[in-house]
Amino acid sequence: MRIWSLHPQYLDRQGLVACWRETLLAQAVLAGRTRGWDRHPQLERFRAAPDPLDALGSYLEAIAVEADERGYRFDRSRIDRAAARQADALSVTTGQLAFEWGHLTAKLAVRSPDLRELWSGVTTPEPHPLFHVLDGPVAGWERASAED
Length: 148
Prior knowledge:
Shape: globular
Largest sheet: 2 strands, parallel
Strand content: 5-15%
Radius of gyration: 15 Å
Number of strands: 2
Structural class: mainly alpha
Strand order of the largest sheet: 1-2
Distance between the termini: 6 Å
Helix content: 40-55%
Low-confidence stretches: none
Mean pLDDT: 91
Number of helices: 5
């Protein structure tokens, strides 16, 4: 499971679709509809939010907005708590963003080299709209090696 802290604009088609699907799974886990992945470390930051389902709803809405901009139609009815208002921002560290940026650019180099080239000049990627950036290291919940 990879719920990116990066802005969804950087994701290729496969990444955007996977992020949507995996965040819907995270929503089902936190809503108690499934027990699979209930201990996945990526869920820690959402569990720590004042309202985890609001946070996931806002996260999913930003993914759907990006999909709309690309001409895709993600089914917003699948969002448990559609973002009537933006949820309270969650924090992400500069180290976490840098880690994810390296992970994503390696994936893009293999499956979407043109997109990787488009983003080659980016040294400080934007975060997903739900997150605000703080200085700091890679998050404690992050795996030592990103295999997802």
